[in-house]
Amino acid sequence: MVENNDAVLYERLAAKDKQAFETLYDRYEKLLFSFAFKITKDRGLAEEVMQDVFVKLWNGTHAFESSKGKFSSWLLTITRNKAIDMIRKYAKHEHVELMDKDALISEEKPVDKIIEWKEDRELIRSAVSELNVEQQKVIDLFYFKGFSQQKISEKCGVPLGTVKGRIRLALKHLRETLEKGGRSDYEA
Amino acid sequence: MKPEQCHHLIDYFNGTMTSEESAEFERHLQECSECREELAELRILTEDLPYLSDPVEPSPGLKNRILEAAYSEGQPIKEEPSEFQAYKASAEPQIKKSKRSQSLIIGGLAAGLVLSLGANIIQMSDDKEEQLVQSEVLERKVALASVEGNKTLNANASFLKEKGDQFMVLQADGLPEIKDGELYQVWLIKGEKPVPAGYFTPDEKGNGALVYKVTDEDLDWDTVAITVENEPNLSAPKGKVVLAGNM
């Protein structure tokens, strides 16, 4: 199964192998699109994000190095950065939402683990639901809205100096809950 | 009391700082192991969050659009901010220069049309450029850039309409010398499908130009590219791409 390994596919992509590029595209299309949509709340913007990410992946502007960690995490990070750029440009998503909202679940049948990420989603969703409302809110503002520290402090009504601490606490709490919930496949 | 910079970690992570502030924070990161650790920790702690997204079905045509956009970009183009800025700065006077000579070329086009007798491709020469007739409407202009980052190499393709016909006027400066028998081939590319759109050989100063009558079949192109070839008007490029520009 070495052939299907992301890093191997990426090496082939970097050598201009269209088949490898398309395999990676197929593997990540739905996850990245759904993630971009979660951030932008707009199909058109999410499509622009996808195009930017994949064109730059193909032409080498975004170059992955295995020293940067997992390919999937790196790809998700550049997707997030672009999606957040887009909402800053079109700033229209000011409202805060809690992360355990159950909207927009597609009725597709799960295809495989990466394509549908169903198990991950259920585990993380259940861990998130154990966070208190304030913690959910701070993670949403920080991670999915990409707000500045100043803005998070205003939205949450907490002093500027405590924003970072609150974010870290919420994220650590989430991680601990996930570990307890039996997630075994991530690095310590 | 922590140094002032340690308070910028969140803004650095979220990219809400100016590029100067980010650069300053990056210098701080090299000295502050605590911030380095916190940044690495933030990355690990947020790694699972994208998987919270509810699956949303992308539209069925998205893949093809993206693949077309990616493949029509041609050769890899590295976007390095500092180099890009330098490129923009150095390109400025050249843009002014080419604007002036372009109006000469447009004049040449009209003159050439009178003489063309239905020929699709008209090789331009210097003396024709001196005649100025301005009856064309400029519809679109595409700047082509060197795919190898050669900053002295520039080209523009202008799309003009005259009496219902569309023409592409292409001119390039700073072209590298080519061997005898080689030529610069221009392509209009629609998705992955290239259509030959005329060819030329540059003069001794590395300047080249051509006029191409755009036919109805090649109207929907999205990329203009120039390759070096051994023979004209092949059905697909064999040589390497020298210049490319997107609509």
TrEMBL record, chain A:
<dbReference type="InterPro" id="IPR036388">
    <property type="entry name" value="WH-like_DNA-bd_sf"/>
</dbReference>
<dbReference type="InterPro" id="IPR014284">
    <property type="entry name" value="RNA_pol_sigma-70_dom"/>
</dbReference>
<dbReference type="Pfam" id="PF04542">
    <property type="entry name" value="Sigma70_r2"/>
</dbReference>
<feature type="domain" description="RNA polymerase sigma-70 region 2">
    <location>
        <begin position="24"/>
        <end position="91"/>
    </location>
</feature>
<comment type="similarity">
    <text>Belongs to the sigma-70 factor family. ECF subfamily.</text>
</comment>
<dbReference type="InterPro" id="IPR013325">
    <property type="entry name" value="RNA_pol_sigma_r2"/>
</dbReference>
<dbReference type="InterPro" id="IPR007627">
    <property type="entry name" value="RNA_pol_sigma70_r2"/>
</dbReference>
<keyword id="KW-0731">Sigma factor</keyword>
<dbReference type="Pfam" id="PF08281">
    <property type="entry name" value="Sigma70_r4_2"/>
</dbReference>
<dbReference type="InterPro" id="IPR039425">
    <property type="entry name" value="RNA_pol_sigma-70-like"/>
</dbReference>
<keyword id="KW-0805">Transcription regulation</keyword>
<dbReference type="InterPro" id="IPR013249">
    <property type="entry name" value="RNA_pol_sigma70_r4_t2"/>
</dbReference>
<feature type="domain" description="RNA polymerase sigma factor 70 region 4 type 2">
    <location>
        <begin position="122"/>
        <end position="174"/>
    </location>
</feature>
<keyword id="KW-0804">Transcription</keyword>
<dbReference type="InterPro" id="IPR013324">
    <property type="entry name" value="RNA_pol_sigma_r3/r4-like"/>
</dbReference>
<protein>
    <submittedName>
        <fullName>RNA polymerase sigma factor</fullName>
    </submittedName>
</protein>
From TrEMBL, chain B:
<keyword id="KW-0472">Membrane</keyword>
<feature type="domain" description="Putative zinc-finger">
    <location>
        <begin position="8"/>
        <end position="36"/>
    </location>
</feature>
<dbReference type="InterPro" id="IPR041916">
    <property type="entry name" value="Anti_sigma_zinc_sf"/>
</dbReference>
<dbReference type="Pfam" id="PF10099">
    <property type="entry name" value="RskA_C"/>
</dbReference>
<dbReference type="InterPro" id="IPR051474">
    <property type="entry name" value="Anti-sigma-K/W_factor"/>
</dbReference>
<dbReference type="InterPro" id="IPR027383">
    <property type="entry name" value="Znf_put"/>
</dbReference>
<dbReference type="Pfam" id="PF13490">
    <property type="entry name" value="zf-HC2"/>
</dbReference>
<comment type="similarity">
    <text>Belongs to the zinc-associated anti-sigma factor (ZAS) superfamily. Anti-sigma-W factor family.</text>
</comment>
<feature type="domain" description="Anti-sigma K factor RskA C-terminal">
    <location>
        <begin position="109"/>
        <end position="240"/>
    </location>
</feature>
<keyword id="KW-1133">Transmembrane helix</keyword>
<dbReference type="InterPro" id="IPR018764">
    <property type="entry name" value="RskA_C"/>
</dbReference>
<keyword id="KW-0812">Transmembrane</keyword>
<protein>
    <recommendedName>
        <fullName>Anti-sigma-W factor RsiW</fullName>
    </recommendedName>
</protein>
<keyword id="KW-1003">Cell membrane</keyword>
